[in-house]
Please model this.
Amino acid sequence: MTPLALAPRPSAMRSRADRLGAAVAQAWRASRPHLLVLLPILLLAAAAAFGLSAWKAGRTNAAIAALEAGRDIAVTSEAPDALLVARTQFLAARDRLGEAEPLLDTLDRRSAAEAAARARYAVANARIRQAFLLIERSELDKAGPQVTLARQDYRRALQARPDFWDAKFNFDVASRLIRDFPEFDRKFGDELKAEPKQIWTDIPGQPRGGP
Model:
């Protein structure tokens, strides 16, 4: 017959608890001097980290404000996403699109969908503005590529942010200006198929959409 297991006596349980408590107290007494030394260092390091973060945020906000005010502020590829977008918008507003391309590439590499969509939208709007000026001067050969590139940037902005309504609207406006080349249709799957340089004549006045 298997003997029944006996529960530990209360005195034995108290003895184990006393030994455990004594071990914890001894460990605390041994580590307390080290903790008292480390605690100020840890607090100082945390304060320094928060201070550095606040300083960087302040510099970023100041640079963005300067760009929005029209000051030409140089921006490196290591800058935060918001600053890269502000710089891209500054360059696009002044038709300096060649300088904006490296910034777009940086945002793409970071997979910064929201920032990349806003930056590409600004560049696409600049291309549409250029296309309008060329169309007014009847320079259709030059206007066509600008619209094609603008549509490409609108499309990429929408891929990054499908709910970007302004980009959708302006993409439709660009699509109604000039039909793509057939090679571009096959490459990018565009639905519009027509001869290049064909201008839609059923648009009442200059299309709107905020380029």
Observations:
- The first helix runs from residue 10 to 68.
